[in-house]
Amino acid sequence: MIKRKDIKDYLEKDFNISQEVIDFVEKIENEIVEPLNDLNLTAEFHQYRVIKAMQRAGLSERHFSVATGYGYDDIGREVVEKIYADVFGAEDALVRPHISSGTHAISLALYGVLRPGDHLLAITGSPYDTIRSVIGLEDKYQGLGTIKEYGVTYDQVELLEDGSFDEEAILTAIAPNTKMIYLQRSTGYSWRKAVTLDAMEKMIKKIRAVKSEVVVFVDNCYGEFLDRVEPVSIGADLIAGSLIKNPGGGLAPTGGYVAGRSDLVHLAACRLSAPGIARETGATLGINRTLLQGLFLAPTVVAQAIKSAILLAACYKKLGFEVCPEVTDYRSDIIQSVRLNTGEGIKIFCRAIQEAAPVDSHLTPEPWNMPGYADPIIMAAGAFIQGSSIELSADAPMREPYIVYFQGGLTHYHGKLGILLSLQRLCDKKIIII
Question: Which Gene3D superfamilies is this protein grouped with (predicted)?
Answer without folding.
Answer: Methioning gamme-lyase, C-terminal domain, Type I PLP-dependent aspartate aminotransferase-like (Major domain)
